[in-house]
Write a sequence for this structure.
């Protein structure tokens, strides 16, 4: 029984890492589309989001099957619970990548659109995503703690963007819709940061056996 | 200003498999039984089956003993009512106290001791007598009943507590061996509780039973803990996790880990416990 269980766990590990790679790819594509103004790529990200959704459902079904058939305990149980939660976080990150693409497509091509430089924030969120997935692959708790600490930087960047765009709205009230749309990108990036932090916290819980959220 | 996360107290890693000291809290306040540095030798000292185990059995708790075959869990449980006395060449060292009385004291009579610390075995072993006599025998020899009416009361009460009364009340004079396996096991439990024990030892009580009979016994264990302390040896980890409040993991004669059952099954502290309960080690 235990060899079967280990085989299933190895399989699910591969599946969640594959989903992680797909989501990271979507995120990078969304940032690239935004940076280069590639509308076709942005549309493609939105059109193919269903692939992530399908994968997410598959991973969850697989986890439920293992829970029902093997009734795992201790590290195996914590691993499966972590996968179920990380799976959900990854799907949400892909949704935010879609949202970024969507903001970009629905915005008018006014010059104001590219006034705010999201590169540093996207870079920080991207680093967090990569690092949280690396922490999962390597079971590296220090790396996971790093991701947790990095979240504050993204939050600060979002606050900064908010202040800047508030002033922009005051200056150009007729552009309020576009500017809000632009601000929402910072909100999406910040939420992506939150989800990578969740992933990191799941990795910590998986390794250390203690829930560290909300501390 | 960036929000700074609160520093987290980090937990140590799993205790290395080569360390054999007991991990976890083996004592409880106000225990029913207290075992101090218990070692057991077989074959006149040739084989050490249990190595220096200290463990308390609390009041009104179910404590499960798990571990691979030959790890010493049954040997340990059998020390608790001196069942090992019957084995030639077996020697028990250390101290086992029942309510502060050393049960290995020379003055102790094992017959009343085994009433105080009753035992239920793997295979149901009713006496080849009627259902009624199976229960009545113990109270009679221990002088707990004076007349037929009192005996009737004890029989009914014990069978009711064991959840068997409704099934057998119309055939109390029929042989106990004619009952189903699960019923026989409940009859043995009824027989044990008829003599007012303080502690009930159960050595794999459900291993010969089907899932329905097992679940009835498990419910019964849960009810019985209101009145008694129960130590159960089981090979079924799911059973240990369902019925017990504390779990002790034994490995090659050592008590490796003891702790609240939910901790053992969710977040064990010792590498050997983790390996055993996740099936990485047989």
């Amino acid at each position: 029984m235990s060899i079967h269980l280990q085989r299933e766990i190895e399989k699910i590990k591969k599946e969640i890492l594959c989903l992680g790679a797909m989501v990271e790819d979507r995120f990078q594509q969304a940032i690239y589309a935004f940076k280069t103004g590639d509308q076709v790529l942005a549309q493609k990200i939105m059109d193919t989001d269903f692939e992530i959704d399908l994968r997410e459902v598959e991973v969850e079904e697989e986890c439920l099957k293992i829970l029902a058939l093997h009734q795992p305990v201790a590290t195996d149980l914590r691993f499966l619970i972590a996968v179920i939660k990380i799976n959900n976080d990854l799907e949400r990150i892909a949704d935010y990548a879609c949202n970024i693409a969507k903001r970009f497509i629905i915005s008018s091509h006014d010059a104001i659109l590219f006034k705010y430089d999201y590169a540093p924030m996207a870079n920080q969120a991207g680093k967090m995503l990569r690092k949280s997935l690396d922490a999962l692959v390597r079971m590296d708790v220090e790396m996971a703690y790093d991701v947790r600490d990095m979240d504050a930087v993204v939050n600060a960047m979002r606050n900064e963007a908010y202040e800047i765009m508030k002033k922009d709205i005051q200056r150009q009230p007729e552009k309020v819709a576009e500017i809000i749309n632009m601000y929402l990108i910072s909100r999406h990036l910040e939420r992506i940061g939150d989800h990578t932090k969740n992933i990191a916290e799941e990795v910590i819980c998986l390794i250390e056996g203690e829930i560290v959220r909300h501390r | 200003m960036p929000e700074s996360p609160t520093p987290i107290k980090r937990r140590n890693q799993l205790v290395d498999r080569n360390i054999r000291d007991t991990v976890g809290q083996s004592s409880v306040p106000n225990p029913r039984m207290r075992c101090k540095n218990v070692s057991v030798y077989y074959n006149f000292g040739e084989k050490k089956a249990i190595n220096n185990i200290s463990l308390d059995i609390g009041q009104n708790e179910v404590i499960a003993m798990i571990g691979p075959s030959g790890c010493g869990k049954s040997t340990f449980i059998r020390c608790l009512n001196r069942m090992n006395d019957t084995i030639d060449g077996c020697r028990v060292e250390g101290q086992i106290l029942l309510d502060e009385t050393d049960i290995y004291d020379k003055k102790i009579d094992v017959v009343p001791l085994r009433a105080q610390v009753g035992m239920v075995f793997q295979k149901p072993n009713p006496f080849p007598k009627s259902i009624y006599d199976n229960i009545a025998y113990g109270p009679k020899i221990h002088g707990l009943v004076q007349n037929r009416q009192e005996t009737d009361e004890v029989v009914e009460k014990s069978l009711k507590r064991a959840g068997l009364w409704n099934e057998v009340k119309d055939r109390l004079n029929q042989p106990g061996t004619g009952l189903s396996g699960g019923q026989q096991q409940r009859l043995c439990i009824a027989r044990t509780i008829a003599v007012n024990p303080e502690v009930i030892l159960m050595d794999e009580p459900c291993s010969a039973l089907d899932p329905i009979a097992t679940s009835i016994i498990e419910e019964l264990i849960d009810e019985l803990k209101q009145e008694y302390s129960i130590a159960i040896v089981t090979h079924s980890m799911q059973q240990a996790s369902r019925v017990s409040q504390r779990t002790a993991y034994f490995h090659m004669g050592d008590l490796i880990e003891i702790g609240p059952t939910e901790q053992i099954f969710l977040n064990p502290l010792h590498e050997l416990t983790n390996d055993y309960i996740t099936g990485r080690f047989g």
Q: What stands out?
A: The CA atoms of residues 144 and 200 of chain A lie 5 Å apart. Residues 2-208 of chain A form a domain with the Methane Monooxygenase Hydroxylase; Chain G, domain 1 fold (CATH 1.20.58.220). The helical segments of chain A are 2-36, 39-47, 49-70, 74-106, 119-138, 141-171, 176-208.
